[in-house]
Amino acid sequence: MAPFIRLVLASLVLVSTSAYYVQQNEEGFISGVISDKGLDFAKDILIEQGIVSVVQLQLPEIEKSVQVPFIGNAKVVLSEITIKDIQVNSSSVVSGESGIFLLVSGATADLTMNWRLHLVTVLSRIETLGAYSVEGMQVGLTVDLRNEEGTLKLILLDYGCYVTDLSIKLEGGASWLYQVLVDAFQGNIASAVEQGISDKISEGIGKLDTLLQSLPKQISVDNFAQLNVSFVGNPILSNTSVAVAINGLFTERNVGLVPQGYRKELQVSSACGGLPKMIKVSIHENVFKSASLVYFNAGKMQMIIDELPNQAILNTAEWRFIVPQLYKQYPNDDMQLNISASSPPVILVDKQDVRASVLVDITIDVLEAGEVIPVACISVDISGSCSVDIIRNKINGRLKLQEFSAYLKWSKIGKLHISLIQSLISTALKTVVVPYLNLELKKGLALPTIDGFAFQNANILYYPPWITVCTDVSYSEDYYLTQHSAYVS
């Protein structure tokens, strides 16, 4: 039932927002719902893979003594009763306040078996093969989801399989004899099928619940940051969707999860700009703000520039007319720029992109006889915009420099005329800093997905303060077959 577990789990994690407004009184900065279109998609794959997991299911042996006309007492044993195939005529999935209900109706199951007939009166034994189909079969289950200390618990409320009709065909020279036994075994065979499939449902839900309970509450991003992925509040089940929310904030690595110091009303809409998408993942700007704070506190928002396209700029000789004091004290020495953020970047989601501003200190260092000598510091207020896109299963960004302003913070080489060194700052920002940041943004922020699934035809929408990913989902059948084969073996 491993594929069953993966599919349902994907349906719960790859979620976006519902067709209603969802209010939660706790902090959830990544939210979402699987829509009715997504539920249908998940249902179809779930049934398809559920069939594969049930096929080859062997039912318990059935033994019964019967009275055969003109022959007398006979003991019949049905063994190796195996489900060979299942065909589904119709299916549906419905969510609501009482849970998620999945129904398969009008299904047919083909089975094979061995027949052994012991004729007591003539002291003989006959063996042959039999085949039968189970028709009018209905399979249903209802589950509910609850939050237990940041993890999801899956509760099986009701389940079962019901068989309405049997069609049995016997093979072998004595099939005329066995046909009289069909009526005697119909109830036993139907009960065996019902019990076998019901047991599989219970087993699958149990494994899924165990897997949900084992999901981590935090994911390490790198050596400095971790993402809080604990669930917030109970999932919201409406008649068209399933909605969940997770905390979604970055914290320092190896720091325990600390509840936020405030509460807020979280409203999440299913609107996708008129696009009929399966899922919608919404990310609050606070997610990005928390990341910037963590990396700022870790001292990772700094870089040293010792190479530029116009390398001559990083030599005091180039500055002899701009800053004579610098050249006089350090003639013909190489230089470097030490850039570090003096405060965490401010990040805001706008109507068309993401706006960011950061205050950085650019320290001018002179390299003399192997020694790094800071000679001046310029404070620069930088603002830019970031366009967001989806590539595979990651959110990628591209930063554009909007404007910057600078002032002298301190100097050991006398007064600097900032207007005269604007070109240096501009060159450093445009040719080194922004390309470096774009390289980092190109690595992307992984969206929560399950192996085997991928986003398809994704669209980015801006609903300040949220960035929303509206997307369909594709599933790799090859991945499933590989995993299923490994599971069976």
TrEMBL record:
<dbReference type="InterPro" id="IPR001124">
    <property type="entry name" value="Lipid-bd_serum_glycop_C"/>
</dbReference>
<keyword id="KW-0325">Glycoprotein</keyword>
<dbReference type="InterPro" id="IPR017942">
    <property type="entry name" value="Lipid-bd_serum_glycop_N"/>
</dbReference>
<protein>
    <recommendedName>
        <fullName>Lipid-binding serum glycoprotein C-terminal domain-containing protein</fullName>
    </recommendedName>
</protein>
<dbReference type="Pfam" id="PF01273">
    <property type="entry name" value="LBP_BPI_CETP"/>
</dbReference>
<keyword id="KW-0732">Signal</keyword>
<feature type="signal peptide">
    <location>
        <begin position="1"/>
        <end position="19"/>
    </location>
</feature>
<feature type="domain" description="Lipid-binding serum glycoprotein C-terminal">
    <location>
        <begin position="273"/>
        <end position="471"/>
    </location>
</feature>
<dbReference type="InterPro" id="IPR030675">
    <property type="entry name" value="BPI/LBP"/>
</dbReference>
<dbReference type="InterPro" id="IPR017943">
    <property type="entry name" value="Bactericidal_perm-incr_a/b_dom"/>
</dbReference>
<dbReference type="InterPro" id="IPR045897">
    <property type="entry name" value="BPI/LBP_pln"/>
</dbReference>
<dbReference type="Pfam" id="PF02886">
    <property type="entry name" value="LBP_BPI_CETP_C"/>
</dbReference>
